Fold this sequence. Notes:
Elements: H1 7-59, H2 67-77, H3 83-108, H4 112-128, H5 133-149, H6 157-178, H7 183-211, H8 214-225, H9 228-247, H10 255-287, H11 295-316, H12 321-340, H13 344-363, H14 368-380
Helix pairs in contact: 1-2, 1-6, 2-3, 2-6, 3-4, 3-5, 3-6, 4-5, 7-8, 7-9, 7-10, 7-11, 8-10, 9-10, 10-13, 11-12, 11-13, 12-13, 12-14, 13-14
Amino acid sequence: MRRRLPDRDSARVSEAVAQVRQRGRATLSDRVHRVRMALGLALQAGLAAGLSWIAAHELLGHPQPVFAPIAAVGTLAASVGQRFRRTVELITGVAAGVAIGDVLVHFLGTGPWQLSLVVTVAILLTIFAGGSVGIVIQAAATAVLIVTLSPTVEALEVPRFVDAFVGGGVALLVTAILLPLNPLRVLNRAARPALDLLADQLDATAEGLRDRDREKIQAAMERLRNNKDELATLNEAIEGAKETATLSPTRWHRRGELTHYADSADPIDRTMRNSGTLIRRAVTMLEDDEPVPEPLPQAIEHLAAAVRLLKREFAQGHEPEYARERSLRAVSEAGRAYAVGVGFSGSVVVAQVRTTASDLMVTSGISQEEANQLVRQSFGEIDRPGAPPGPRPTTNPATAPPVG
Length: 404
């Protein structure tokens, strides 16, 4: 007879099963997202590998042009935005390895100790010459091939050098002409994690202040601190987009649209750091049992909404007017909170709302001076008799996109 679990144990088992299922769905979703993100790169790499083999084998007559597709894939596997540099490193490193290996093999012959010596000398000489890590690696790898294959393969040096040139050139041809990625789409995908992270933690901070939940704000602070991956992905995508817009004639018309993103990397980084200070002082507010005027959580919620609007308007290629207006509304609410009365840490939070809003305004494409002026005006509106609680909108609020 099957023994029945107590209700409490049964509930625990059901909860554990539900957690496992939820984790499985999240993992599958993450994997599908990663595949979608890498699909363009995979198609580019496959096309470049096949074309580089054809170019080296059929057009140049190399019987086994293995290094040509390797060079092509290696170029595409480099950080986005550094592929032209990667091609130059490949060719330079191969040339250095060929020269060093050929000279030493000529005088010393081949064998295990010669291999060790050639690799050591190749690395030291390329480092002495100021070569990057990529050049050093290619020089050492080429020197190994020269020592190990020269006795059995004739005229190895020239084909390897040509294959490096062919593979890197074909990779650049694929990314610039044959299969260029849409730089704005790449940027939007890369910016989404960083901006979503910021907006979510600001919302969590606002909720934590309203509920006086210190643990929730502390968790938001810790999560925002671990933003290096999101910012690195965004900065890398910006460099890649600029490279694509420079090398690809079909994307030259996108240069103007990329200006916002290219100029937004530093302001987004400052926004992250200033938001971190805001959240940290919010924790201190609750620890010191300071008052939390209702306009203060509202101001932080408006900042979160401004971040989401900025992301949406960038993705749609629109002038981020709604994001600017919501940023100024955050400043106005912070001014109301300051007028009601805050403690020392609360005044720091108010100041950080102003600074973060200014950073968001600069991210949206206006100058630092203009952003500071608009922030001062919005913060000071509370002092004027009969002034509305927020800045006067320049567009119709009824047509503003929903934020959530």
